[in-house]
Amino acid sequence: MMQMEAKSINILAPETWPFALESLPEDAWLVGGAVRDALLNRKSQNLDFDFVVRARSVETARQMAKYYHAGFVVLDAERKIARVVFDWGTVDFAKQEGVSLTTDLQRRDYRMNAIAYNPRTREFADPLQGREDIQQRLIRMVSPTNLADDPLRLLRAYRQAAQLGFTIEPHTRGAIRQLAPMLGKVAAERVRTELSYILESENGAPMVQAAGEDGLLNSWFPTATNKDWALVVNIDTAASQLAEIYPPLAAELHRDLSSELKISGYLPIAKLTCLVAQQPKIAEAQLQRLKYSRAEINAVLRVLRGWERLSPHVGAKHSGGQSLGKTDNVKTGMLRPDEDKPVSSMSVREMYFLFQEVGPMFPAFAAIAVATGVPGNSLAELVTRYLNPKDVVAHPVALVTGKELMAALPVPSGPQIGRLLEEINIAVGEGKITTPSEALQFAAQLLDIVG
Fold first, then answer.
1. Does 143 map to a domain?
2. What are the beta bridge partners of residue 53?
3. Are residues 191 and 304 in the same domain?
4. Do 231 and 362 belong together in one domain?
5. Do residues 233 and 382 share a domain?
């Protein structure tokens, strides 16, 4: 423990901080995640400091913000918690709860988070032996009452287990199972934030499965079963298989899409898709209830609708069929494709409409398909088309516009124009036409059929 503390003291040295020690009251103690992460020698891109003071917590935060020209916000007026917002991170100040620092620490969620550090004396206050849990990489509750006081703490255990590589101590996990229904009463935004952290974590899939099997997510995903929780774990395996078979797809699967598509990435969306109902309308309602963004909801719906297009070609021999995870051997990826309707039997028309449904979410769709048992090799034509930006089936480019159709043919504005444009795109994919003039001739021949 001494070696671990020596390293952490260097990390917590005030001279390395982007604000002066003199900005803090004499009685300020650093608590929570910053202390835990320092003991783990774990660094973060954005600093996140939480200080406990005996009095004037809001005033202290306001003064620091004013001195450093930083942002200031009161997080909880009743409990006197305020935040200073810097470019490099945040500094929170909270009024000490109870008559002493020990009392304050005893009200926290897990022992590893109930450690305080005095930046002036360089000493730790650890009345609950949280450092022992850190050394053993265990998440152990302070008490069931503390968890019940804020039920979001229940899900937070699984998030921190995923991020830190810790194990939830059995007695603690048992208490979480008993308290699990309480998570349904927590504000949706808070639940979604914690769940998103887990889904986006490199090691998060097993923790999603554990949280689901322990009943934590039943209120939010009532249609999910144990096979659906297990399917989340399969997504990572499927991504590895796809990356091995199609190396150009590897970078796509792990790309940050926050700027481009306003979602975190393909794999978190694929995992989220495993949790919702397979019926798009029900899935949309579930995600709306959790306050997911429109971009995230649309991404999941694209994957589900793509699955609807693919499902007639796979899995006709498995039992059930109500949801993505309803397979007999989901953990080993043993869903058996229908030999009479393999993926390779898809026509250009079917592939065109599949790509229209999934759009830019094809990598997430492919991960779902392989996770449910579709052989990765059977997706070869679909993957090849997606990876080729010039492929006219996956990435169609219109030979003519709707206005050009209306100018050349006796077709009024309306749905019929859209159907004609679709048929032209499909004909291009089939190699039947290649020029705008051929497209107009083709449309003229179709008028009786399409009309």
1. yes
2. 95
3. no
4. yes
5. yes
**Which among 128, 163, 137 has a CA at the least distance from the CA of 39?**
137
Are 34 and 146 in a shared domain? no
pLDDT tens for each residue of the chain, 451 residues long:
444 454 455 678 888 888 999 999 999 999 999 999 999 988 877 789 999 999 999 999 999 999 999 999 999 999 999 999 999 899 999 999 999 999 999 999 999 999 999 999 999 999 999 999 999 999 999 999 999 999 999 999 999 999 999 999 999 999 999 999 999 999 999 999 999 999 999 999 999 999 999 999 999 999 999 999 999 999 999 999 999 999 999 989 999 999 999 999 999 999 999 999 999 999 999 999 999 999 999 999 999 999 999 888 775 443 333 356 544 433 333 333 444 456 778 999 999 999 999 999 999 999 999 999 999 999 999 999 999 999 999 999 999 999 999 999 988 999 999 999 999 999 999 999 999 999 999 999 998 765 5
Residue showing tokens 């290649």: 434
The position carrying tokens 């899939």 is 205
CA distance 102 to 124: 12
392 assigned to some structural domain = no
Expressed as residue numbers, the domain containing 198 is 138-213
In this structure, is residue 397 part of a structural domain? no
Q: Is 301 a member of any domain?
A: yes
Domain count, the chain: 4
Regarding pTM above 0.90, the answer is no
